Amino acid sequence: MKFFSLRKSVLSFAFAIVTTGVLASVACAQGVKQEILDRMDGNYRSLTSLTANVKWDKTNANLGDTDTRTGSVSFLPKSKKHGMYIRLDWDKPQESMVVIDKKYQLYRPALNQVIQGSTDSAASSGKAGNAFAFLSMSRRELIENYDIKYMGQEDIPGGIATWHLFMTPKAKASYKSAELWVDKDGMPRQARINESNNDTSVILLSNIKKNPTIKADIFKLDTKGAKVVEG
Q: CA-CA distance, 129 to 215, in Å (whole number)?
């Protein structure tokens, strides 16, 4: 009887240690997540404009093919005066896209064509704007709209140390989940959008310049004479 009692006590003690360790680990992860969100909120509040080089990897889940594009981006976060403004200029093929709030225009000079529509319903290129929307979200908006899980520390291309967050929309969205890689200053450096059909888009920012002067007319595409197609 003493043997079984001792065995039971040892097992109970071991279980208590494991449970305490698990709870401590969860509490630590929650603390890190709050620190990340605090830094993101600080970056959001101090960000008035941004320019950067951008790389976009778009993967078709059915075919397993990845289309990679590079270019540059000019960005104005949403404010009390205006919605979010984005301009993306791609190198090959040469294309320019402007997103204002959730409306986009994609200009293809080689085809003399403009595709326009909503980023929520866009089939491909217009969805790139979704990745940049996170730069225009406060901590309150992130917490209210997403279930957020801290995934750990990771280095992204360029050797940049980041925190990795996995985010699931609480309400119906045009994608099933998103992932962010955030640097020590609270700046999202990489975003991954996981579509409902399992296609993915990964946007990587480099050579970031925070709060440069950006003229408003940069967000007006010169598309005179181009054929307009609704996207």
A: 20
Q: CA 127, CA 36: separation in Å to the nearest integer?
A: 25
Q: Which of 74-83, 156-165, 221-230 has the highest mean pLDDT?
A: 156-165
Considering only CA atoms, which of 99, 110, 112, 105 is closest in space to residue 231?
Answer: 105
> Which tokens in the block code for residue 88?
């993306």
- Those residues whose C-beta lies under 8 Å from the C-beta of residue 55, and which sit 6 or more positions away, are 68, 69, 70, 203, 204, 206
Report residue 141 CA to chain centroid gap: 14
176 vs 17, 19, 166, CA distance in Å?
37, 32, 11
Q: Is the predicted pLDDT of residue 151 greater than 70, yes or no?
A: yes
In DSSP notation, 93-120 reads TTEEEEEETTEEEEEEGGGTEEEEEETT
Helix (H) or strand (E) holding 213, with range, is none
pTM over 0.90: no
Q: Domains in the chain and their CATH numbers? A: 41-230 (2.50.20.10)
User: Do residues 87 and 98 lie in contact, with contact meaning Cβ atoms separated by under 8 Å?
Assistant: yes
Asked whether the predicted pLDDT for residue 125 surpasses 60, the reply is no
Query: Contact, 39 vs 142, CB < 8 A?
Result: no
Query: Can you give the pLDDT at residue 101?
Result: 84
